[in-house]
């Protein structure tokens, strides 16, 4: 088993469903058992493929980067990278401790590394929160090319600016909820970039083959006339708009028959 596979497995175990063991992880912290901590940087990465999106979202995206404890001292060492995609209505700052949230990913990873059962790794999370509360990590004219941004532009930027192992065997892709959907969507298309995938409670895996929407849901969607209306809408209504915005329509062979990719 290669180094990334071992690291990826322990990273995944640290983020199991439920509370992702964060409560239990923090209980292990004490003055008697100090844990070496990594460093978190929040950078800004420009997405060429995000330019000109119809939603008007900035192509300059915040990105949180976790650097393991030895990164600052072992200047000759290079590290595998796990790209972690957050869920719908979430953002990178919530997962990395910049904003109070139900999880603090760096704290969990620090404890996991301190157990000594896995090699160190870098974690990278782009902020995919947009006008529709989430990009679905898809390519569309409305939101921009998020799939390309993650797989191509972000990976290239990280490899250029950090001491990574720039090869597919040393890259993993993981995600929670919407991020899990993004993981399988992007990962299966780009095995030349990501060698390992892990989906945490992924959303949107069962297609609505009938194309029908309940009358109640349709009525709630029709009530949304402005951005302010969308911001006040319930989670399900927001998700419907986000899914539609991330959709790239392709015409089938039959006239007036379309599929969303």
What does the model show?
The chain has 261 residues and is an alpha/beta fold. It has helices spanning 3-14, 22-27, 92-95, 105-114, 146-161, 178-187, 215-222, 227-232, 235-245, and strands spanning 39-46, 60-67, 81-85, 122-126, 139-140, 144-145, 171-176, 196-200, 249-251, 258-260. The strands form 3 sheets. A 6-stranded mixed sheet has the order 1-2-4-3-7-8, sandwiched between helices. Strand 9 and strand 10 (258-260) form a beta hairpin. The longest helix has 16 residues, at 146-161. It is globular.
List keywords for this structure.
disordered C terminus, alpha/beta, single chain, 261 residues, six-stranded mixed beta sheet, Rossmann fold
Task: Give the topology, please.
Elements (H helix, E strand, L loop, with lengths): L2 H12 L7 H6 L11 E8 L13 E8 L13 E5 L6 H4 L9 H10 L7 E5 L12 E2 L3 E2 H16 L9 E6 L1 H10 L8 E5 L14 H8 L4 H6 L2 H11 L3 E3 L6 E3 L1
Parallel strand pairs: 3-4, 3-7, 7-8
Antiparallel strand pairs: 1-2, 2-4, 5-6, 9-10
Helix pairs in contact: 5-6
Quick recap:
The protein has helices at residues 3-14, 22-27, 92-95, 105-114, 146-161, 178-187, 215-222, 227-232, 235-245, and strands at 39-46, 60-67, 81-85, 122-126, 139-140, 144-145, 171-176, 196-200, 249-251, 258-260. It is of the alpha/beta class and 261 residues long.
């Amino acid at each position: 088993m290669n180094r990334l596979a071992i690291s990826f497995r322990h990273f995944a175990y640290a983020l199991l469903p439920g509370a992702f063991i964060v409560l239990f992880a923090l209980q292990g912290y004490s003055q008697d058992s100090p844990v070496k901590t990594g460093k978190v940087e929040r950078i800004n990465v420009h997405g060429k493929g995000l330019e000109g999106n119809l939603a008007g979202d900035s192509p300059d995206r915040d990105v949180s980067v976790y650097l393991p404890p030895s990164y600052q001292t072992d200047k000759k060492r290079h590290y595998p990278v796990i790209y972690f995609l957050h869920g719908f209505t979430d953002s990178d700052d919530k997962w990395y401790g910049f904003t109070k949230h139900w999880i603090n990913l760096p704290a969990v990873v620090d404890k996991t590394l301190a157990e000594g059962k896995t090699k160190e790794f870098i974690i990278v999370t782009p902020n995919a929160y947009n006008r529709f509360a989430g990009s679905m990590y898809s390519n569309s004219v409305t939101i921009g090319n998020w799939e390309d941004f993650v797989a191509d532009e972000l990976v290239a930027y990280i490899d250029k600016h950090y001491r990574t192992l720039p090869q597919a065997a040393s890259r993993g892709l993981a995600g929670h909820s919407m991020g899990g959907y993004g993981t399988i969507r992007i990962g299966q298309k780009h095995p030349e970039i990501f060698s390992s995938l892990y989906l945490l409670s992924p959303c949107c895996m069962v297609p609505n083959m009938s194309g029908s929407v309940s009358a109640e849901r349709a009525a709630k969607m029709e009530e949304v006339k402005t951005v302010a209306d969308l911001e006040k809408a319930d989670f399900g209504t927001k998700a419907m708009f986000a899914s539609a915005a991330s959709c790239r329509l392709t015409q089938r062979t039959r006239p007036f028959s379309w599929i969303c990719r």
